[in-house]
Design a protein that fits this description.
There is one protein chain. The chain has helices at residues 22-26, 51-99. With 112 residues, it is an all-alpha fold. The protein has a domain at 51-100.
Length: 112
């Protein structure tokens, strides 16, 4: 016997234990098995969409994601533009104060 090698006994097969005989299966005194009818069966699952539809849906999802990113960026750029405008106004007022220039206050449009 080699080191690290051992034989396992073969499992005994249980071929005919507990199985009904052919004669008992063919007897006419047995009732037919209760198989579900077509009304009782659930509907079959829907078939997966074709490959080209999956590609179209993936492309649409990608475009929606890009559109959402563009909207977020546009919103942040609007906020940044407002902050920069306010900063420019403050710096302009400081420069006017240092120069001694008096200007009329800028009126904002009424729709804002």
């Amino acid at each position: 016997m080699h080191a690290g090698y051992f034989r396992l006994p073969r499992p005994k097969t249980l071929m005919h234990q507990g199985l009904p005989s052919v004669e008992s299966m063919q007897s006419s005194d047995r009732e037919p098995a209760d198989f579900p009818t077509s009304e009782e069966l659930p509907p079959p699952p829907p078939l997966p969409p074709p490959e080209h539809e999956l590609r179209d849906r993936a492309k649409a999802a990608k475009l929606r994601h890009r559109a959402a990113k563009a909207r977020v960026r546009a919103h942040s750029l609007e906020e940044k533009a407002k902050r920069l405008q306010e900063k420019a106004n403050v710096l302009e007022q400081k420069a006017d104060h240092l120069d001694g220039v008096v200007r009329a206050p800028i009126q904002l449009p009424l729709d804002e």
